[in-house]
Amino acid sequence: MTAGAIYPSLKDRVVFITGGGSGIGASIVEHFCAQGSKVAFVDIADEPSRELVRSIQAKGDPAPVFIPCDLKDIEALRSAIQRTVDDLGPITVLVNNAAHDERHSFESVTPDYWDERMATNLRHQFFAAQAVYPHMKGAGGGAIVNMGSVSWVIGQGGMPAYTTAKSAIAGLTRSLARDFGEANIRVNCVLPGWIMTERQKTKWLTPEGEEELLRRQCVKRQLQPAELARVVLFFASDDSSACTNQNYIADGGWV
After folding, report:
1. Is residue 181 a part of any domain in this protein?
2. What is the tens place of the pLDDT at every residue in 138-158?
3. Model pLDDT for residues 98-130, shown as the tens digit of each residue
4. pTM of this prediction?
5. What are the residues whose beta carbons fall under 8 Å from the beta carbon of 202, sequence distance 6 or more?
6. Collapsing DSSP states into helix, strand and coil, what is residue 43?
7. C-beta separation of 208 from 238 below 8 A
8. Is residue 212 domain-resident?
9. Domains in the chain: how many in total?
């Protein structure tokens, strides 16, 4: 993790992060812990998540709380949020990060697969926001950062259920920002470009794909998870107090 700005407003703030066990999510967890936040995260992958906790402890930063959770199970998500409140205090930052960008052809999609993709990539974002709302309202306000994707903006093919879910997050963000604003809760969405997590490099990156990336991005290099985590920190902090109802693209200038 590279050094970045320190946000005093994030120290001791209770932060709940979905999909925090690996990739961009793990970097977000690390960055909030380095800010001195009280962090809880959920993930379906047990061992990588526990290893992340150990690695953060080894660096001397406050250790996050890992709660195993399949986000398709909304009651389990609600339980994890309540456990976080009981153990750490009212949640005032929510990062809706969890997603799964499995490729699929339009011919292969069945109604059951479509519903599973919506549950994996979209549905939990709404129900997490719904669950944290009373805690943020009671605390006098908060910040929600939803993670979208530029895949739908650029019209990427080969995964229509994923891009549909991610495009819906833009609308969800604007709706919740309006509904939550009176409680001093800000809601923004960050749309990452192609961020080079281990999953991306292992599963999807090809020489042809990297050539296209470097041709289309204004910044001629691979973007790293820490660069997205620092954007999330900004929108979670009081430094972005005037920012809500926005969809912010962080893609190195691809779009």
Report:
1. yes
2. 999 999 999 999 888 887 778
3. 999 887 888 899 999 999 999 999 999 999 999
4. 0.93
5. none
6. strand
7. no
8. yes
9. 1
